[in-house]
Amino acid sequence: MKTSIATVSISGDLREKLAAIAAAGFDGVEIFENDFLAFDGSPAEVGRMIRDHGLEITLFQPFRDFEGMPEQQRSRAFDRAERKFDLMQELGTELMLVCSNVSPLAVGGIDRAADDFRDLGERAKRRGLRVGYEALAWGRHISDHRDAWEIVRRANHPNIGLILDSFHTLARRLDLETIRAIPGDRIFIVQLADAPLIDMDLLYWSRHFRNMPGEGDLPVVDFMRAVAATGYSGPLSLEIFNDQFRGGSPRSIAVDGHRSLIYLMDQVARAEPDIAIDVPVLPERVAVSGIEFVEFAANETEAEELVLLLRAMGFSQIARHKNKDVVLFRQGDINIVINTEKEGLAHSSYLVHGTSAYAFGLKVDDAAATVARARALGAELFEQRHGPDELAIPAIRGVGGSVIYFIDAKSELAKVWEIEFEPVNDAGDDAGLMAIDHLAQSMNYEEMLTWLLFYTSIFRTRKLPVVDVIDPAGVVRSQVVESDDGGLLRLILNGAENRRTLAGHFVAESFGSGVQHLAFASRDIFQTADRLAELGFNVLEISPNYYDDLEARLGLEPEFTGRLRNRNILFDRDEGGDYFQLYSQTYGEGFFFEVVERRGYRGYGAANAPLRIAAQKRTLRPKGMPGA
Ligand SMILES: O=C(O)c1ccc(O)c(O)c1
Ligand SMILES: [Mg+2]
């Protein structure tokens, strides 16, 4: 199936939009009339520019307030249509979208509208053009695709067809089964959009909050399954009205859009194995069984500080790389790599961002298949020169230019620690840390949907509802992406709206998005806390007021809250059970570690986040005093 996107979906002038759309791999564009009107070139020039990009014009739109007008307005509407037909012929496109009439002058009536469309069909036919009719969810008389289809059916003209738009159908929660009965060849084009569930006026919701399929909450896959059942084989065209996308990066929004369509088609093909759909074949979504390692890039001095910190959490250095300035620290199943090489991505990453967790490795069943899926979804491959006795670990680029490596047990990859490293003898007592519970990445709010779609389309993960975390300086939106089978990948995306929040400061001062915190799972957080105190760990101090409130709120025993308070442990409880957390102070521009213990608890301690953030901001190093 061909992929297409409406020019209205991304930012920039028409030239920038087309370049981004073509680069992202789309086959076609819908020309939104306003983009054309604002452009200072003739229709023929615009048409040529589009074709020079290897794109076809899948649709010209919108033509408004056409059907069911009283005389005078009716003949004027036909005159207007003829003018637009002239324009379409100069542009070089043959399909026009008419959206259902919103004018108060419009008279209702299915047959009256059908008559108008039959006449318009005749005019279109003379010019070799076609017209599609779309029900706007807020149309005056027609707001339901079933009624639009009935008008098209009664117009009974080969040049008049139906246009379906997932937003209008899903926003009104119309029965999707009604789509299956429409003959696929009577559907002239299918427009796709998702949206977050927000209770608001349909027109406002549609014009400001649409997003790419998979980024919102609407069942776009179910909609597309019904469309596929009709035998429709025309373009799938994104039509995304979104205020944020209008101000975003044309390139990255276009890449997101293309990714959303590939992922959507992939889901439809898997859900409807009996329907022949012409879609790219890609490996299925990848189950991640955990984070194999996290790698920090640092210079030598800062690496020493990091090492002190790791030792204060009970980590031991267990190996060093045979050829590179890279060392491996371990505790339980947690592998922390510190890379102080003077070349390669680690070094350039250090130069740009300072000491940071610039890479991590995920455990998967098949690393090659993982990369194949990621590539099919438009992810960027990462390859770096490696020595003859080193492994080529498959990898892609992630948030903020970071790297995600894939380790499987199928190949030699799982033996990377033995193959590339040599052991060193430095085992100390550990602090009861067993595994990485979760990894949190901070980014600008505008990037969140991009990375949400990235993670959910490539990996077998699901998103939880966005949580607004109140920082003293603003709101940070927090989005969990976790294994959808309750597996072991847990990621948090924190979207900062301003640079004065803890997350925003981190993004601004470390020059980009990245891993801001790592949470380790403890066997017994009380024992861990006591051990960390012996090791000289700088725990984040929590206000006594918190424990008074906790006691009252959850009805806890004073003896229990006393034990929490003495160790600066935060507590939360949900239907599943109890959650314990403690934090490090912040390092550098706001990086920190967390230790958690879950006793059946499923969440992430959102209730504690505002308080914890306020405490951490007190530990941020004052500006202008490096190293202080
Ligand atoms: O908001 C609108 O007016 C509008 C116009 C054309 C469309 O295809 C659509 O879905 C909405
Ligand atoms: Mg539409």
TrEMBL record:
What InterPro entries does this protein map onto? 4OHPhenylPyrv_dOase_N, DSD, Glyas_Bleomycin-R_OHBP_Dase, IolE/XylAMocC-like, VOC_core, Xyl_isomerase-like_sf, Xyl_isomerase-like_TIM-brl
Please give the biological process terms from Gene Ontology that the record holds.
3,4-dihydroxybenzoate biosynthetic process
- EC class of the enzyme, as a word: lyase
* Entry GO MF terms: 3-dehydroshikimate dehydratase activity; isomerase activity; metal ion binding
Q: Could you tell me the EC number(s) of this protein?
A: 4.2.1.118
User: Which residue intervals define the domain VOC in the entry?
Assistant: 290-409, 435-585
**Pfam families, from UniProt?**
AP_endonuc_2, Glyoxalase_5
Say what the protein does: Catalyzes the conversion of 3-dehydroshikimate to protocatechuate (3,4-dihydroxybenzoate), a common intermediate of quinate and shikimate degradation pathways.
* HAMAP family according to UniProt: DSD
Protein name (database record): 3-dehydroshikimate dehydratase
Q: Which organism is it from?
A: Mesorhizobium waimense
